[in-house]
Amino acid sequence: MGLLEGNTALVTGGGTGIGLASAIRLAAEGAHVFITGRRRTELDSAVEAIGSSATAVTGDIANLADLDRLYETIRSRGQGLDVLFANASVAEFATLEQTTAQHVDTLFGINVRGTMFTVQKALPLLNDGASVILNGSTNVDIGAEAFGAYAASKAATRSLARTWANELKGRGIRVNTVTPGPTDTPGLSGLAPDPEQAAGLRQHLAAQVPLGRLGRPEEIAAAVAFLASGQSSFITGTSLYVDGGLNQL
Fold first, then answer.
1. CA distance linking residue 71 with residue 99, whole number of Å
2. 8-180+215-239, which class in CATH?
3. Could you count the other beta carbons within 10 Å of the beta carbon of residue 193?
4. How far are the Cα atoms of 13, 25, 36, 86, 195 from residue 229, in angstroms, in the given order?
5. pLDDT (tens digit, 9 = 90+) per residue, 100-147?
6. Average pLDDT over residues 205-226
7. Distance between CA 225 and CA 23 in Å, rounded?
8. Would you state the pLDDT for residue 193?
9. Which residues contact residue 23 at a Cβ distance below 8 angstroms, ignoring those fewer than 6 apart?
10. Integer Rg of the chain from CA
11. What pLDDT is recorded for position 69?
12. Which positions are annotated as active-site residues?
């Protein structure tokens, strides 16, 4: 018996990186996992990797109609929702001088507005005692150059998690944030304009981590599974750092 046997879970941004690793882990723990993302090809590959325990729904969390369609699909299964990992987010470099309205709108539109309505629209489906997990970032704490809007968007989601933990406690719904350090994902490499610079970025970030390396998506997924399960039944409103000591030492 897995930690989530018979549960229903949703992972947004589940086609790649931390989202995919988390969907695989939640399914391995016994959950039926719905995954959503904007790229159908990635979702199809994810379902192939997970197997019959996964259902993919293409969509953009910044599009309210897409969220409605997603939740209608989950509703039609008739078992509600026990775990919601609001993982989907985007990151882009831009210094204060370089910041444009489009840059801010994109990051806050997906990372904050999209996350907010992902959780709000899930409320009628969330079973009492469900676990909601938001994807955070160590950049909230460190003031990294050219990451101002991104870090601010993640600070907003951290704040929302604390508020929602308070608002949903009457239903026994726990809300927590998982806060990864630099993690070796396609999204991280995609911050650089070419493979050579991507390798340099990964090397630079790994050198800052006390454990001397980047995190692996599977390591973040293990923390997500913990927060999703009854093993974390007395934890809510917290931020679980999975950062190799980056923000701790």
1. 34
2. alpha beta
3. 8
4. 20, 12, 21, 16, 38
5. 999 999 999 999 999 999 999 999 999 999 999 999 999 999 999 999
6. 97
7. 9
8. 86
9. 9, 11, 14, 33, 35, 46, 50, 54
10. 17
11. 98
12. 150
Q: Rounded to the nearest 5 degrees, what angle is found at the Cα of 230, between the Cα atoms of 227 and 232? A: 45
Domain spans, the chain: 8-180+215-239
Give Cα 146 to chain centroid, integer Å: 22
Please say whether the beta carbons of 62 and 90 come within 8 A.
no
Model pLDDT, residue 241: 98
User: Of 197 and 156, which is predicted with more confidence?
Assistant: 156
pLDDT exceeds 90 at position 68: yes
Q: Across the strands, what pairs with 56?
A: 35
* Six-digit token string for 129: 């005692």
Residue 95 buriedness (CB in 10 A; 0-12 / 13-18 / 19+) = exposed
Q: Average pLDDT for residues 173-185, to the nearest whole number?
A: 97
Q: What are phi and psi of 120, to 5 degrees?
A: -60, -45
What is the distance between the alpha carbons of residues 11 and 35, in angstroms, rounded to a whole number?
5
CB atoms near residue 146 (< 10 Å): 15
Within 8 A by CB and 6+ apart from 106, the residues are: 90, 92
**Range 217-232 average pLDDT:** 98
Pair 165, 237: CB distance under 8 Å: yes
Q: Measuring CA to CA, which residue among 239, 230, 150 is closest to residue 191? A: 150
Give the global pTM: 0.97
